[in-house]
Specification:
Elements (H helix, E strand, L loop, with lengths): L1 H21 L1 H31 L6 H9 L2 H5 L1 E6 L10 E5 L6 H8 L4 E6 L7 H8 L3 E3 L4 H18 L2 E4 L17 H9 L3 E6 L6 E2 L4 E2 L2 E7 L13 H19 L3 H7 L1
Parallel strand pairs: 1-9, 2-5, 2-6, 3-4, 3-5
Antiparallel strand pairs: 6-9, 7-8
Helix pairs in contact: 1-2, 2-3, 2-6, 3-5, 7-8, 9-10
This protein binds ligand LOTZAFKI and [(2R)-2-oxidanyl-3-phosphonooxy-propyl] (Z)-octadec-9-enoate.
Family: Belongs to the 1-acyl-sn-glycerol-3-phosphate acyltransferase family.
Function: Converts 1-acyl-sn-glycerol-3-phosphate (lysophosphatidic acid or LPA) into 1,2-diacyl-sn-glycerol-3-phosphate (phosphatidic acid or PA) by incorporating an acyl moiety at the sn-2 position of the glycerol backbone.
GO molecular function, one term: 1-acylglycerol-3-phosphate O-acyltransferase activity
């Protein structure tokens, strides 16, 4: 009986291995499927730990989430090379902005997440089962992207609470995932928030995933991700009139860095 199970198990594993070798699409689906299952299962376990240790929704739970998610990279053969972490050491609150390529970004986020830092996320994430629960418990700020006025109201509220709670807020200014190896034009919410709260903007750039991850070509292998935390950009004394300029400056610096980290330095100069 036990031998039968062993033979069946081995046969299934062999079949999966052969399918993965033969078809990149199967390989991609299995690896992404595994990532989702890992997120769902880990979120359930982490949620229990968060409730036991901290009792409810608080940014302190991010430490637990970070510890869990930091182990994920080993399952997928991903390596991070991080530079500039000292740039997070600003006095008081700050807005962190970074490029957003994929759902895999959660690994890069947790690799370097500073203490007392929450993210701005789309409200739909609340309905992703245990992942939604853990995101809620971590204190993520939910916005309705379909209603500019309500998103602005939430952001204005955040500007007020940041100082009181000494919070850093992580925003993906592209507003959606983009795995083209370039940046989408930046939305201005993060920069309005920084100016309203008079806090610095800290740009973070992750190198392009395209060499190891591409949903269009069904590529998902192991790989190295370079991460650079750039020096803070001060906003003291800036007003809403300066937001467009601040957004553009940040965009140019991050695009240049993205191309440099991804080994495409000439393109940054050509198309900026
Ligand atoms: C255990 C394992 C599990 C893993 C768990 C991991 C946990 C971590 C969770 C991490 C969650 C990550 C989630 C990532 C996301 O969901 S990304 C998507 C959501 N985020 C964003 O969209 C942020 C970026 N978007 C913005 O900043 C937008 O500006 C927004 C505020 C949302 C408004 O967008 P939109 O309606 O599209 O309007 P516009 O941007 O076009 O702006 C219109 C005009 O309004 C002006 N504006 C914008 N914001 C403000 C503001 N706050 N105050 C004043 N004015 C504002 C803007 O300038 C435009 O006017 P002009 O054109 O300049 O005249
Ligand atoms: C009971 C409901 C069950 C639902 C199950 C859903 C399964 C989802 C499980 C795991 C997915 C892991 C997601 C980790 C969090 C990813 C955050 C993220 O990257 O969100 C994307 C968002 O920034 C932008 O969204 P769009 O690019 O605009 O789209």
């Amino acid at each position: 009986m036990e031998l039968g199970w062993l033979v069946c198990g081995t046969a299934v594993l062999l079949l999966l291995h052969v399918l993965m070798e033969l078809s990149p699409a199967v390989n991609f689906a299995l690896r992404i499927g595994f990532y989702c299952v890992l997120c769902l299962v880990s979120s359930a376990l982490a949620a229990a730990a968060c409730l036991l240790v901290n009792g409810g929704r608080t940014v302190k739970n991010m430490r637990i989430i970070k510890a869990v998610v930091k182990t994920f990279k080993y399952f997928f053969g991903l390596r991070f090379e991080v530079k500039g972490l000292e740039n997070f050491e600003v006095e008081g609150p700050a807005i962190i902005v970074s490029n957003h390529q994929s759902i895999l970004d959660m690994m890069g986020l947790m690799e370097i997440l500073p203490d007392n830092c929450v993210q701005v996320g789309k409200k739909e994430l609340m309905y992703t089962g245990t992942v939604g629960l853990i995101i809620y418990l971590g204190g993520v700020i939910f916005i309705n992207r379909k209603s500019t006025s309500s998103a602005k109201m939430v952001m204005a509220e955040v500007a007020k609470t940041m100082a009181n709670e000494n919070l850093k807020v992580w925003v993906y200014p592209e507003g959606t995932r983009n795995c083209t190896g370039d940046l989408l034009p930046f939305k201005k919410g993060a920069f309005h928030l920084a100016v309203q709260a008079q806090v610095p903007v800290i740009p973070v750039v992750y190198s392009s995933f395209t060499t190891f991850y591409n949903p269009k070509t069904k590529l998902f292998t192991s790989g190295k991700i370079k991460v650079e935390v750039l020096p803070p950009i001060e906003t003291k004394g800036l007003t809403s009139d300066d937001v467009t300029d601040l957004t553009d400056r940040c965009f140019c610096t991050m695009r240049e860095t993205l191309f440099r980290l991804s080994g495409r330095p000439s393109e940054a100069k050509d198309s900026s």
